[in-house]
Amino acid sequence: MPETSRSALEALREPLETGRIRIARAARQAEFPARFQLVAAMNPCPCGHLGSGTRSCRCTPDQIKRYQARLSGPLLDRIDLHVGVNALPPGELLGTGAAESSATVRARCIAARSRAHARQGRINQDLGPQELERHAHADDNALGFLRQAAERLGWSGRGLHRSLRVARTIADLDGAERIGTEHVAEALQYRPALAQP
């Protein structure tokens, strides 16, 4: 992702937020639907070895800071899930046990979408902030935990609502009617400090 031009990345902010894109050219304006799922990747530093247990990073702190700063806080704030993936040693890649099948995961996802539709008439991603608060059905302890984390980490309102949506989805995947502290705790893991504006 950081190898893409800054202007192209910043142009993603509007469609990620609204699901629409507005193009203005010579006194004319057009708006188009632009709902999409963004899957992006980046290395932790220019050489790609920062934090590796097997290879040394060759980058200076200034190079690392400049590299990571290519993605603006407002853009990162619009990305719901940030997942760190470390390189695995060959021994862990070979001879791994059987994982959950795609069919099992698919069935759980379909059931979670059905729960969301039955509860609110649309998927969690499509809920605005007020609708989200009305349909979240979170325990008081879970909301308190989320509020404390947002204050401690200095999240924007957007970051707070995105984490609540993710927690609602995790609860739906778990088959839970209400969002519990465990669902919020898992959602918090997907918004690391790097992702904060």
UniProtKB/TrEMBL annotation:
Magnesium chelatase ChlI-like catalytic domain location: 1-90
Matching InterPro entries: CHLI-like, Mg_chelat-rel_C, Mg_chelatse_chII-like_cat_dom, P-loop_NTPase
GO molecular-function term, one example from the UniProt record: ATP binding
Database matches in Pfam families: Mg_chelatase, Mg_chelatase_C
All copies of domain Mg chelatase-related protein C-terminal, residue ranges: 100-191
Name recorded for this polypeptide: Mg chelatase-like protein
